[in-house]
């Protein structure tokens, strides 16, 4: 028998929230890793394409994360389906609370929907509280339009699609393509940023705390610029060109600020050289020394290939 926690019988609410969080965490983690590895590969130019760089193997090993244990686009819809049940409570201005507090902010959902993008300077925008407030608006707005499209329109559109000869799966899939996925992504990003900010606030080393806050802000703004800007304008949260300009300038500013700490940040993870298995990432930084060594260790580096005589005879 399951233990009771905070008065929740059988922990069903906790189970459902954990399932929603994991169903969004797995896809977003796989996508972030996929994009990060690819950007590293391209940033290293031709060197990154070499087998000895290890980036190709890393990319191939991670690629399965986008489909195993649930294809990402399908899996994240389980999160959205769980979130949809809260919209009627938002409309009725009920107090919303969950065991892990990932949706507690929806209690103020109607007030959040009336907020606007107000940052005027880079320093305003990079404040974690302001970035988190943007994500709260995104979740509320995406929840609203997803509910409207899925719940109020789904039945009629589903019937119309069936009349057109679509099979049930295709008919349902056509109304889940955009908003459901974006809702799940914004929700898990908001939760991750909120937890990160809470933990960073407890740091006692001020220089480390400052760097971590910059990383938090950079991830939050980078994700907004990449995935959510269109929704901000679609929902009337932002207007004109200044919000986009400010977000882009803030990202460049944070990259410049963090650049000096990049090596130290990587060294906090510090995988051993044999595990990293890359001529580009060795701890001593001797890229070309290790690159040359990898060439010399190649099976045919100092020998002729077996088919060399066939080429000579063909020419003769």
UniProtKB/TrEMBL annotation:
GO terms for molecular function: FAD binding; fatty acid binding; pristanoyl-CoA oxidase activity. Keywords: FAD, Fatty acid metabolism, Flavoprotein, Lipid metabolism, Oxidoreductase. InterPro entries: ACOX_C_alpha1, Acyl-CoA_oxidase, Acyl-CoA_oxidase_C, AcylCo_DH-like_C. The keyword Oxidoreductase applies. One of its GO terms (biological process) is lipid homeostasis. Pfam families: ACOX, ACOX_C_alpha1. Residues 128-314 form the Acyl-CoA oxidase C-terminal domain. It comes from the Eukaryota. Its cofactor is FAD. Pathway: Lipid metabolism. Transmembrane segments: none annotated. SUPFAM superfamilies: Acyl-CoA dehydrogenase C-terminal domain-like. One of its GO terms (cellular component) is peroxisome. Residues 11-84 form the Acyl-CoA oxidase C-alpha1 domain. Signal peptide: none annotated. Belongs to the acyl-CoA oxidase family. PANTHER family: ELECTRON TRANSPORT OXIDOREDUCTASE (PTHR10909), PEROXISOMAL ACYL-COENZYME A OXIDASE 3 (PTHR10909:SF390). This is Acyl-CoA oxidase. It comes from Popillia japonica (Japanese beetle).
